[in-house]
Write a structure and sequence with these properties.
The structure holds two protein chains of two kinds.
Chain A (H helix, E strand, L loop, with lengths): L1 H25 L30 H11 L12 H4 L50 H7 L8 H9 L4 H9 L6 H12 L8 H6 L9 H13 L14 E2 L13 H4 L8 E2 L21 H11 L18 H11 L5 H4 L8
Antiparallel strand pairs in A: 1-2
Helix pairs in contact in A: 2-6, 2-7, 9-12
Chain B lengths: L1 H26 L4 E12 L2 E2 L7 E2 L5 E18 L4 E3 L4 E5 L7 E8 L1 E10 L3 H4 L15 E2 L4 E10 L9 E7 L9 E6 L6 E3 L6 E7 L17 E3 L2 H13 L1 E7 L1
Parallel strand pairs in B: 1-14, 11-15
Antiparallel strand pairs in B: 1-2, 1-7, 3-4, 4-5, 4-6, 4-8, 4-10, 8-12, 8-13, 9-10, 10-11, 14-16
Classes of the chains: A mainly alpha, B alpha+beta.
């Protein structure tokens, strides 16, 4: 009789243990900090609403895994992360233009990825109007990932651990383009860079201040650059011709609008993390900030639709350039660039 | 014995309730039913056969069709008294190569006599930019431009000996929602009041439309494939949209 009770008790205990185990497996890591989309206090309200795409750790983890998975590309050689490298603020270090499948060279410089939730149009020509549909361009471009969404979905359905990850992220056994794009957005949309020295100074955080050189650079910047590179994003998101060529070899914005006045115009890029996002311009023609500043000082070409503010160039002497450069480096957000949460793991 | 009595007691009100419901369906104005939209594809009166049959455009040029698909969205039905019903989330992709897509059942429509139907040829402005979509609007359907976001409203691909493009191909991808190259067009037609679309709980009518693929190439501008054989948005897409706005759809008859 006693033996029977003991056997029964052991049986119950082991069932309870098994239950506890399986319970734990449901949550990947119960102590994990929840991933959040945080808005720096010096930023306005975002354009993208995560209310329609609720962030979860599982959704973010799935988006991140997809972002870094080269198997999604035609020849399994290129992931999103290949051309958007974290140490370059998710731009492509040392590459003038993006380097896609089958060693194909794209035609434009891979832009950095951060603060995308505030952006209303994407790519150098603003052709894509929603962050969620942005990856489709890179996925299908013959010179980027060279594949199509259906091929990717078929791959994901038959490749562990994706089915399980989709289930954890969205609570369904379905794998669709919508869920794929929403999870990627949970990753890319959460990439917020708003804790540079500049931000800390603007927010008057204790113990942070510009050096005299940085301060002078900031004053010069506000006078000479901020009409296009407007704070706090250091772009006004407009499309302009900045006098790189008399006649651009890339049609730029007019490819999207069909309007001649937009020929050879490109979206004003953000200058945040500019220290690490070279080479510069839509075609990556300038390798250093010195070359960029010299372009505005002496290299402006009188293109037909040159932006009026650049008609006479931007006069900058050696001291000006040094000061502006010192200021630009305060836009580097090391916490963002080194945040392990965003790294391929 | 006891059990069956309880069961009977339980069943009685259920039977009563369900019979009440039946009565309400037939008499109250908020009863609902369904109808079908049927799209029959033709080219100037002949049946559309992909890849095989040769047709002539208004300029007398030969052509064949390999792909023919288009969106119908925001379907709105109106009654003679001016009230109308917009079918919620009505986005349909009709594809000649998928026969099932040519017969669409629309459910949960308030019963009544409808004397007008109206819909967008394509996809409304907002939904072009609304982020990742599902169903008919899923980008896997090959009707979404990835580099210039927005939907292809009407897609016709084929060949013509007159085409100057590689492989004598014809590529007409019509879309774009921003002026001056906005290609959103609306189709609407009055329905003969003698035979309106009668939606009843016990009758699910069928609206039969003739869809003329050749309407892309005539109507406002007669298109020659020697000069226009490729468009993916832009001014030439507007030329095509202006053409098909006039003649793509014709309500042939209604089976009540």
């Amino acid at each position: 009789m006693v033996r029977q009770i003991v056997v029964f008790a052991v049986l119950m205990l082991s069932i309870a243990l098994m239950y506890a185990c399986s319970k734990n497996e449901d949550k990947i890591n119960p102590d994990e900090k929840p991933v959040t989309f945080s808005i720096p206090s010096n930023f306005p309200a975002p354009a993208y609403h995560f209310e329609q795409n609720k962030i979860s750790n599982a959704g973010f983890a799935l988006g991140k895994k997809l972002f870094y998975d080269a198997r999604l590309s035609a020849d399994k050689s290129v992931s999103c992360g290949s051309c958007h490298q974290q140490f370059a603020a998710f731009a492509n270090l040392d590459h003038k233009v993006s380097h896609g499948v089958k060693n194909c060279q794209g035609k434009r410089n891979a832009p950095p990825l951060f603060n995308l939730a505030w952006q209303k149009a994407f790519f150098w020509d603003g052709g894509v109007k929603n962050i969620e549909t942005s990856p489709l361009n890179a996925i299908t471009d013959a010179c980027e990932m060279g594949t199509d969404i259906q091929t990717i979905i078929t791959f994901l359905k038959s490749t562990a651990p994706y089915p399980e990850m989709f289930k954890q992220a969205f609570g369904t056994n379905e794998i669709s383009s919508q869920l794929l794009l929403k999870s990627l957005t949970q990753f890319t949309g959460v990439l917020v860079s708003g804790n540079s020295k500049y931000d800390q100074v603007i927010r008057k955080e204790a113990g942070v201040s510009f050096t005299a050189e940085e301060q002078s650079g900031y004053m010069l910047f506000k006078k000479k650059c901020s009409s296009c590179h407007a704070e706090p994003f250091f772009t006004d998101f407009s499309y302009r011709n900045n006098g790189l060529d008399l006649v651009s070899s890339d049609e730029g914005r007019s490819h999207i609008t069909g309007v001649l006045a937009d020929f050879g115009t490109f979206r004003i890029p953000s200058l945040r993390n500019i220290e690490y996002t070279g080479p510069y311009m839509h075609d990556g023609r300038f390798y250093s900030l010195d070359e960029v500043l010299e372009h505005y000082n002496s290299g402006i070409k009188a293109a037909e639709n040159l932006d009026p503010s650049l008609k006479n160039g931007i006069q900058l002497n050696g001291t000006d350039k040094a000061q502006i450069k010192a200021f630009l480096k305060t836009l580097t957000d090391n916490e963002f660039i080194k945040n392990k949460l965003y790294s391929e793991s | 014995m006891k059990l069956s009595q309880y069961l009977l007691a339980l069943l009685c009100p259920i039977i009563l309730l369900s019979s009440c419901k039946k009565d309400a369906d037939e008499t109250t104005p908020d009863s609902k039913s369904s109808f079908t939209l049927e799209f029959e594809h033709q080219v100037n009166g002949s049946a559309l056969n992909l890849n095989t049959t040769t047709y002539k455009n208004a300029k007398g040029e030969d052509f064949k069709i390999n792909v023919f698909k288009y969106y119908v969205s925001n379907v709105k039905l109106s009654k003679a008294d001016g009230t109308n019903y917009l079918i919620p989330e009505s986005y349909f992709l009709i594809d000649e190569s998928k026969p099932a897509t040519k017969l669409i059942t629309v459910s949960d429509v308030p019963t009544g006599d409808y004397t007008k139907i109206e819909y967008t040829i394509g996809v409304d402005y907002a939904r072009n930019f609304a982020g990742a979509q599902t169903g008919a609007l899923d980008p896997v359907n090959g009707m979404f431009w990835t580099w210039n976001s927005g939907y292809i409203f009407v897609k016709l691909e084929g060949t013509s000996p007159q085409s100057t493009a590689a492989n004598q191909s014809l590529t007409f991808h019509i879309g774009g929602v921003v002026d001056p190259n906005n290609t959103i067009r609306t189709y609407s037609t009055e329905i003969n009041t003698a035979n309106p679309l009668r939606i009843r709980t016990d009758s699910k009518p069928d609206m039969h439309f003739i869809v003329n693929a050749a309407s892309l190439f005539t109507g406002t501008t007669d298109v020659s494939f020697a000069t226009l054989n490729f468009t993916m948005g832009g001014a030439n897409s507007v030329v095509i949209a202006n053409n098909y706005a006039k003649g793509l759809f014709r309500l042939d008859h209604i089976h009540n």
